[in-house]
Structure formats: structure tokens, C-alpha cells
Please model this.
Amino acid sequence: MVNWVSLTIPFSYLGILVGSLATFSSLYRKRKAAKSSTLEPWFGPHLQRDIYLSLLHIEPEPGKEKSPAVPDGVLKAALLQRAVEDIRRILEVRNAKQALSNLLQRGSVGDDIWQRFLRAEKEIEAELRDVVEEANALQSGWGQTIFQSANEMHHNAILREKLNAIQAQGKSDREWWQHEKASIQSRFMKELEDGEKVNTKPATTLAGDKIGSDEDTVLVESGGPAASGDVNSTKGGTAKRRKGKK
Model:
């Protein structure tokens, strides 16, 4: 015969244990959800989504019952811009997921960053579903091709940014080259002027020496009559001595 009294103690222990675990699990999930809700979002405000919702739910003017009708073309353009921003965020999440996972495994980043990232992934999934539903509401079947068009627009925007950066760099390079060209020309002209000065110095020295020699020659010639008088007196004295001998 089974002794139910003796079995009440283990069953009571198991019931208390299961209840404690359930209570702990519930409190842990609530605390984790509260903590994740207080974490800083991975992305900033979604401006394109806010613009689309503002156009879609525009309020009527004071004194009027109906709000002004927004053309479908404006709504489609706003929704397309919203999809372009979603494409940019999707690419950013895909590129960062593998690197962030490796850093988490190494312990380089905390669990709060990983929780922020996971919450951003869930928000993007919900955003994509919302965009597809809005696109199908505006035009039947557009939800299947809206992200393809948004992806093309995103790549075109990236190419345009690169082209603008290249053009800006080319402008700065041209300005640098003009400055460098003027500097090279000024240095070259300075070297030419220095070379001409060096070449003119020996000619000036030779001309000065020639002028000095001419002046010496003139000085010698100016003393010529006195020298000739001395020569004549010497000749006269020699003739007198010869006559005396005779």
C-alpha cells in the first residue's frame, strides 16, 4: 500500500522548486525587457518614416472637417524614400553583425550592445513588413518591387556622393598644381637671374683690368718728354767726350 503521507514531502519540495524557478524566470524576463527598453537605440530617428506618416495622417485645418487630400504621387515618393532609408539600415546591420558577433565572443563588447543590435534587427523586420503593406495599399503588387527600386536609388546616391567627392578633390588638386607651378616658375626665374649675374662678373673684371692698363700706358707716355731729354743729354755728353779725345 502506498504511503501518501510520506510522498507529500518530495512532491511539496518539487512544487516549491518549480514555482521558484517559474517566478525567477518571469522576473528575469521582465527585468531584461525593461533593461532593453531603456537601452539607447542602435539607429537614430527615422525621419523618412515620420514624414510619410505625417503626410498619411495629416490633420484638417482649423474650422474644416476634412483634411486636405495628399496626392498619391507624393505619398509614393515619401514611401520610396522611407524604403531607401530602410535599405541603408539593412546593409549597415548585415555588415556589422559578423564583426559584432566576433567581438562578443572575445569579450570585447558587453551584452548590452548585443541586445541593442538584436532589437535593431527586430525593428527593421517590422519596418520592412510595414513598408510592404503600405506599398500594396497604395498600388496593388508594388510591395514586391518597392525595395528593388529603393536599392537602385541607394546605389545611385552612393555613386553620386563618390563623384562629388572626386570632383571636389580634383578642384583642390588643380589649385595645388597652380600654386606649385607658380612656385616652380619663380624658382626657375630666380636661378636664371643668379646665373646671369655670375656670368657678368668676369666680363666686368676684365674690362676693369683693361681700363687700368690703358691708364698705366697713358701715365708712361705722359712722362715721355722728360725721358727723351735725359736720353738727349746722355747722347750729348758722349759726343763731347769723343771730341775731347780727338
In short: The longest helix spans residues 146-222. The CA atoms of residues 63 and 73 lie 27 Å apart. The radius of gyration is 52 Å. DSSP finds six helices and no strands in the chain.
